[in-house]
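We emphasize that the prediction below concerns an isolated chain of 87 residues; any contacts that depend on oligomerization or on bound cofactors are therefore not represented. The input was used exactly as deposited, without trimming of termini.
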Amino acid sequence: MANNHDVKAYSIESEAFVNKSGNNVTYFQLEGDVPTTFQFFTHDSTSHFLRGAMYYPKATKNDSLAPVSEYVIEDIKHLLNTLSWEK
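Result of the prediction step, given as a token string:
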């Protein structure tokens, strides 16, 4: 879904990794005047899947929201790195 914003985004960076609990994680960081600056999904390859995105109510000049976005994105990255599924 991150590629749906490529009309307004001037940069879409992605990273994929395996977190501490062995879950596959992929996230996308978008730059530009887009309503979502961060999207992610994670799964354990068998039975669990989680997708999320940080949306603003409308596309805005994200320069003014950058400090808030950076703070929330760091929290989401921490969640993705430490997420484990209940067995």
